[in-house]
Write a structure and sequence with these properties.
coiled coil, PH-domain like, PH_domain, Substrate Binding Domain Of Dnak, Chain:A, Domain 2, GTPase activator activity, 833 residues, ArfGAP_dom_sf, membrane, Annexin V, domain 1, alpha+beta, 25 helices, 4 domains
């Protein structure tokens, strides 16, 4: 063993010994620093390894879930399960490797540092101390005077004792140094060798594991080659079949619908029919009907339990219906109810009538049911207003929405990468997207982009109109105005995702390509929009309606069709869309069903407020006639119907400062969606407040502009539906005052607070009552009762009543597609004889 410090040399305490000691102490200090660093790095490696193992476990769990989802495919399930097991074994091997690293490096080296280096430091302290004492004794001995014998003896004795102690300490210190130097080599090499053997074991185990897995992988590789060939063949066969079917003549395809009592699935006949609902509005909905197990049933969706129309076909009859406006109708009548249905053609109607008749005959011949009964959990409609199984399907879905949106210029390709045939859209931007770009947009967050499918999601009419008023061409002119100027490359189909993502973030989040307008351009834009608003307000459809001639009462329309009733030879205003019987049934339904539901939960401490709702109904006029209002006297009604309080004429004042918020403000009033989108791109706050005009917001100005689509655009971009102006009036107040029924319906759907009162303590309901606006009164009352029912039922029915939702869907559909039916007053001048 090589001796670092010589024992003989240390007794001499020579300068050579002192230099060696100093060198050794420096090396030991550096060694301690390196060992501490190595231990810390080892701890970091182990922590990172544990994080890697945790992420790897999640990945393996994902493989297992994918295998479970592919349970119907035995090859995929078994292969993925085997792969997951192998990867889990590798995770276990990794865990063992990190445990061994902790034992061999972290623990072992830490022990060496704490024990051996600590002993070295203690020995060094003793050595330094005795060295100082020796130096002091030597100096004192040298300074002892010759003539003072007792001092000489004392100094000599102290020097002798100190030298003896020094020799003992220095020998121990040198021994400690030599042992440390020797042990250093063995401890470090032992630790690292153990760690390397752990790696050797890890890789051997991994090699053995995947050697066992290799035959399966080779087998799958061979199967994959065959699968690729089979897939190509299947694709050719399907394309050929597709081409063959496409060339067929389907003009007489409805004749193929025939009654087959011996069908394998027990369904004698099935197909789509329109069914008239039994509620007050007699709406028609398309349902999938089938004759099975001696019953006539229908489904809205395949997963839904079938709703039984006729329990036993032996007890019913079927007949043609020629006394209604719709064509190809027939009726199935049972002892308890009847069901009106409509086929798509006369041939289909005859086929269904014949099928029902044959089923009746077969049922009598068989004298009973041969199959199991259907699940009776879904019952037939009771004929009341509460037809829970018949929600309205006014909204567009699938190909209808797709065709309308893709017909807009520029929408046939993805707005961001140009991929043809996009199937997704951003509803707050008004653009179409491919599936990759839609995923990137969704990752931006809904405050930047709200993504919806053009084929899978349901589209409300106002949202569809919003999409049709914007489009890729309009939005790209705003968000890519400076792209070519800056030399930015627009992504192409097939580009890497990270490049497309970077471009989309630069475009919509950073708005890097938006051209910022100069102060003069912004001023010209605002002035132009204000003038455009004045032109709109001067047209007949934006003028405040003139008051009708004095009429003591309003007569209800004969059919509740929304046409105005005659009064003294003139038509003052149209009546409510609801006839009196429908309204009585409607409010009775809400009141009765609310009481029934509240009574069921009395034991739970839920208070019944239906009486309060009913009292509120008594204080508002009936929806159709002033005769009902006069009978409900708590609120005095005028002898003539006053016109709605018109809004003040919008006057453009020269503002103190022109801003994107002011542009959004006037563009909302002028119904200019491209200018609104441009203002938002320039940084306009959607809830911007015009302090110079009673603190009105863009949403309130959209109400004054009379456009439902403009309101929808602002709401989709996070406009506050309850933000009030200086008079304490929110958008719902203004829409009610102006008689904009469609906007009232939209705001109520979006959570507008109808209980909010302005500075005159007027709520939207009180304003609608004073103006005698039957439809808005009806909507507000229904919304109020639906809210009370929802609060009382709590978690039992968080979405409220289905009939309420159906009514609001009807109003939404009418406001978007037939808005003239919602005009509060007829233009009196055009009705003069």
């Amino acid at each position: 063993m090589k001796i670092t410090v010589d024992f003989e040399e240390c007794l001499k305490d020579s300068p050579r010994f002192r230099a060696t000691i100093e060198e050794v102490e420096g090396e030991v200090g550096e060694l301690e620093s390196k060992l501490d660093k190595m231990v810390k790095l080892c701890i970091g490696m182990i922590d990172a390894g544990k994080a890697y193992n945790a992420a790897n476990k999640q990945f393996v769990n994902g493989i297992r879930e994918l295998a479970q989802q592919s349970a119907k495919d035995e090859v995929i399930e078994s292969s993925l399960t085997k792969f997951a097991e192998s990867l889990q074994e590798m995770i276990n091997y990794h865990t063992i490797l990190f445990d061994q690293a902790q034992r061999s490096i972290k623990t072992q080296l830490q022990t060496f540092v704490k024990d051996d280096l600590r002993k070295f430091k203690e020995a060094k302290k003793q050595f330094d101390k005795v060295s100082e004492e020796k130096e002091t004794a030597l100096i004192k001995n040298a300074q002892a005077p010759r003539n003072k014998q007792h001092e000489v003896e004392e100094a000599t004795n102290i020097l002798t004792a100190t030298r003896k102690c020094f020799r003992h300490i220095v020998l121990d210190y040198v021994l400690q140094i030599n042992v440390l130097q020797s042990k250093k080599r063995s401890e470090i090499l032992k630790s690292m060798l153990s760690f390397m053997y752990a790696h050797l074991t890890f890789f051997h185990q991994g090699y053995d594991l995947f050697s066992e897995l290799q035959p399966l992988m080779k087998q799958l590789g061979g199967q994959l080659d065959q699968l690729v060939v089979d897939a190509a063949k299947e694709k050719r066969d399907m394309e050929q079949k597709h081409s063959t079917i496409q060339q067929k003549d389907f003009s007489n395809d409805d004749t193929k619908l025939e009654y087959n009592v011996d069908a394998d699935n027990g369904i004698a006949m099935e197909g789509y029919l329109f069914k008239r609902a039994s509620n007050a509005f007699k709406t028609w909905n398309r349902r999938w009907f089938s004759i099975q197990n001696n019953q006539l049933v229908y489904q809205k969706k395949f997963k839904d339990n079938p709703t039984v129309v006729v329990e036993d076909l032996r007890l019913c009859t079927v007949k043609h219906c020629e006394d209604i406006e719709r064509r190809f109708c027939f009726e199935v009548v049972s002892p308890t109810k009847s069901c009106m249905m409509q086929a798509d053609s006369e041939k289909l109607r005859q086929a269904w009538i014949k099928a029902v008749q044959n089923s009746i005959a077969t049922a009598f011949r068989d004298k009973g049911d041969n199959g199991e009964k259907l699940d009776r959990k879904s019952s037939t409609s009771t004929g009341s207003l509460d037809s829970g199984g018949e929600p309205k399907e006014r909204s567009l879905k699938g190909e209808s929405a797709l065709q309308k949106v893709l017909a807009i210029p520029g929408n046939s390709c993805c707005c961001d990468c140009g991929q043809p045939d996009p199937r997704w859209a951003s509803i707050n931007l008004g653009i179409t997207l491919c599936i990759q770009c839609s995923g990137i947009h969704r990752s931006l967050g809904v405050h930047f982009s709200k993504v919806r499918s053009l084929t899978l999601d349901t589209w409300e009419p106002e949202l569809l109109k919003l999409m049709c008023e914007l489009g890729n061409k309009v939005i790209n002119q705003i968000y890519e105005a400076r792209r070519e100027e800056l030399g930015a490359r627009k992504p192409q189909p097939g580009d890497p995702r990270h490049e497309v993502e970077a471009y989309i973030k630069a475009k919509y989040v950073d708005r890097r390509f938006v051209r910022r307008p100069s102060d003069e351009e912004l001023r010209n834009k605002v002035v132009s929009l204000s003038k455009q608003e004045k032109r709109l307000s001067s047209s007949s459809e934006h003028l405040p309606p003139k008051p009708p001639p004095p009429t003591p009462k309003l007569q209800p329309s004969s059919h509740g069709s929304g046409q105005p009733a005659a009064a003294s030879g003139t038509e003052a205003r149209r009546d409510s869309l609801f006839c009196p019987d429908e309204l009585d049934s409607l409010f009775s339904y809400f009141d009765t069903s609310y009481k029934l539901r509240s009574m069921k939960r009395e034991d739970s401490g839920i208070q019944n407020s239906a009486d309060g709702s009913r009292e509120m109904l008594a204080t508002t006029p009936s929806s159709n006639s002033l005769a009902d209002a006069e009978a409900a006297e708590p609120l005095p009604m005028p002898a003539t119907l006053p016109p709605p309080s018109p809004c003040k004429e919008v006057v453009f004042y020269e503002p103190k400062e022109y801003s994107p918020g002011l542009q959004l403000y006037w563009a909302s009033c002028a119904h200019s969606l491209p200018d609104m989108a441009e203002a938002l791109a320039h940084g306009a706050e959607v809830n911007w407040v015009n302090t110079e005009e009673d603190k009105k917001t863009p949403l309130i100005m959209a109400v004054h502009g009379g456009s439902l689509v403009t309101c929808e655009f602002l709401l989709q971009n996070a406009a506050n539906v309850n933000q009030q102006d200086a008079q304490g009036r929110g958008p719902l107040h203004h829409a009610t005052t102006l008689g904009h029924t469609g906007q009232v319906c939209l705001f109520l759907k979006r959570g507008a607070n109808q209980n909010a009162a302005d500075i005159d303590e007027k709520t939207p309901l009180s304003i609608a009552v004073e103006a005698a606006n039957a439809d808005i009164v009806t909507l507000l009352r229904l919304a109020k009762m639906n809210e009370e029912m929802r609060e009382a039922e709590g978690p039992y029915n968080p979405s409220g009543d289905e009939t309420y939702q159906d009514i609001f869907q009807d109003f939404t559909h009418m406001a978007s597609n037939d808005p003239e039916k919602l005009n509060r007053y007829q233009q009196y001048d055009s009705q003069k004889p």
